Amino acid sequence: MNIQFATTNKGTTIVELIIYMLFLSVFFIILTNIFVTSLETRLEAETTSAVSIDGRFILTRLMYDIERSEAIISPALGSSDSTMAIVLSGVDNTYQLQGGNLVIINNNGTNQLNSVNTRLTNLTFKRIGNSGGKNTIRVNFTIESVTVVKHGPRVQNFTMTVSTR
After folding, report:
1. What region does 100 belong to: left with phi over 0, alpha with psi -120 to 50, or beta?
2. Is the pLDDT of residue 8 over 80?
């Protein structure tokens, strides 16, 4: 008995390899673009969030401190200044910009109010109202993200008017 085996070539040709590599390359390019886009979106969301959170925190902190202050030392009535000094629980507290950061200076030292992800500009404190009336301060400032995203840094303006109790 003579048994013959059928032999067939089941190898891959160079053309098939090139086509597979082409499909694989296109797949990796699409995957890389999706990954880069998601990272850019995440960074934009983080910078927007940092600006918003810092702005709200600063407004809330200033409102809390001004409302419970015993006296407003500066700015003088009817004038604007980039520095505000108030008396809280018998302690002088000065609010001012230092190197793009809003700081409070008092007996305990210097404390920064904004995060390292943002910087402040255009800070003004304006004392408004009538002499003999409630002390009222109008606060204006601009917060800018330190991280620059695809469309530039995030910038937001904040304004608030608050009176002492």
Report:
1. left
2. no
